[in-house]
Amino acid sequence: MHADTTLTPAAPSWKEQALCAQTGADFFFPEPGSSVRDAKRICLMCDIRTDCLEYALTHDERFGVWGGLSEKERGRLRRR
């Protein structure tokens, strides 16, 4: 007997759905001292922002803007 198996595509991960994936890393990983204002503006419009921030905090991401927060802002959040 042959089992009928239908492959269904996995749901896209939050990273694939995030607006930053459609924008480019330059905004989110700027040169030291550069503004992160544009990245934060994009994050504010993103439905995946909470998942992104949770990932960054869980995985101790030290660089870039994640979930709308800069490295310094995430550091302050961790110290609470």
Automatic annotation (TrEMBL):
Keywords: 4Fe-4S, Cytoplasm, Disulfide bond, DNA-binding, Iron, Iron-sulfur, Metal-binding, Transcription, Transcription regulation. It is found in: Cytoplasm. Acts as a transcriptional regulator. Probably redox-responsive. The apo- but not holo-form probably binds DNA. Upon Fe-S cluster removal intramolecular disulfide bonds are formed. [4Fe-4S] cluster binds at residues 20, 43, 46, 52. Pfam families: Whib. Residues 19-76 form the 4Fe-4S Wbl-type domain. The keyword Metal-binding applies. Binds 1 [4Fe-4S] cluster per subunit. Following nitrosylation of the [4Fe-4S] cluster binds 1 [4Fe-8(NO)] cluster per subunit. Belongs to the WhiB family. The gene is whiB. Its cofactor is [4Fe-4S] cluster. Its main location: cytoplasm. This is Transcriptional regulator WhiB.
